[in-house]
Automatic annotation (TrEMBL):
<keyword id="KW-0238">DNA-binding</keyword>
<dbReference type="InterPro" id="IPR009057">
    <property type="entry name" value="Homeodomain-like_sf"/>
</dbReference>
<dbReference type="InterPro" id="IPR001647">
    <property type="entry name" value="HTH_TetR"/>
</dbReference>
<keyword id="KW-0805">Transcription regulation</keyword>
<feature type="DNA-binding region" description="H-T-H motif">
    <location>
        <begin position="32"/>
        <end position="51"/>
    </location>
</feature>
<protein>
    <submittedName>
        <fullName>TetR family transcriptional regulator</fullName>
    </submittedName>
</protein>
<feature type="domain" description="HTH tetR-type">
    <location>
        <begin position="9"/>
        <end position="69"/>
    </location>
</feature>
<dbReference type="GO" id="GO:0003677">
    <property type="term" value="F:DNA binding"/>
</dbReference>
<dbReference type="InterPro" id="IPR036271">
    <property type="entry name" value="Tet_transcr_reg_TetR-rel_C_sf"/>
</dbReference>
<keyword id="KW-0804">Transcription</keyword>
<dbReference type="Pfam" id="PF00440">
    <property type="entry name" value="TetR_N"/>
</dbReference>
Length: 192
């Protein structure tokens, strides 16, 4: 049965959205096309009409995951404009974010996987990292420091590392301590 162009476009968006979430939960190699398409409510045959390869989908799903991450950062910042960096840290370094494997940060969920992927996926991650650094640089520039870009790199690395480590442990108290220690160190870096 033939689908309309509108329906095909909607199906494509659905697959990208579902892949974005499932890749963050299971990794790029942790889910096959059959299960991915099943999650989107479509058949595996529909995949090849929409995407050149699984890497093509992984790159597009990564871009979608970064869009979601930026929207969440923007929401946090707009909720607390008097302390935007504090708002981002409060959201990002929270136990709630630690638990959000399907909707959490793509850097935490997929950076190690992305390092083993092809150029297209790495390009999506590079763009996402640069965009995160740009936001953090702006937030840190408000601290009257000319080294905001370097600080942004350190802050992003520490935030991603802290959430990654917190997800790697079973003990919720240890996980929270890791997140809290990172937040404290980031506040010191921002204030310096």
């Amino acid at each position: 049965m033939r689908v309309s162009r509108t329906q095909a476009a909607e199906n494509r968006e659905t697959v990208i959205n579902v892949a974005s979430r499932l890749f963050r939960e299971r990794g790029f190699d942790g889910i096959g096309l059959k299960d991915l398409m099943k999650g989107a409510g479509l058949t595996q045959g529909a995949f090849y009409k929409q995407f050149a390869s699984k890497e093509d989908l992984a790159a597009q799903a990564s871009r979608r995951a970064f869009e979601s991450a930026f929207n969440r950062w923007a929401t946090a910042i707009s909720a607390k404009p008097e302390d935007p960096l504090g708002a981002v840290m409060a959201f990002y370094l929270s136990m709630g974010h630690r638990e959000e494997k399907m909707d959490g940060c793509p850097l935490v969920a997929l950076a190690a996987d992305a390092a083993r992927q092809g150029c297209e996926v790495k390009a999506s991650f590079e763009a996402g990292i640069k965009a995160h650094l740009e936001v953090l640089s702006r937030l840190l520039a408000e601290t009257e420091d000319s080294a905001a870009k370097g600080k942004a790199m350190a802050v992003l690395s520490q935030m991603v590392g802290a959430v990654t480590l917190s997800r790697a442990v079973n003990d919720p108290d240890l996980a929270k301590s890791i997140l809290d220690a990172a937040a404290e160190q980031i506040r010191e870096v921002a204030a310096a």
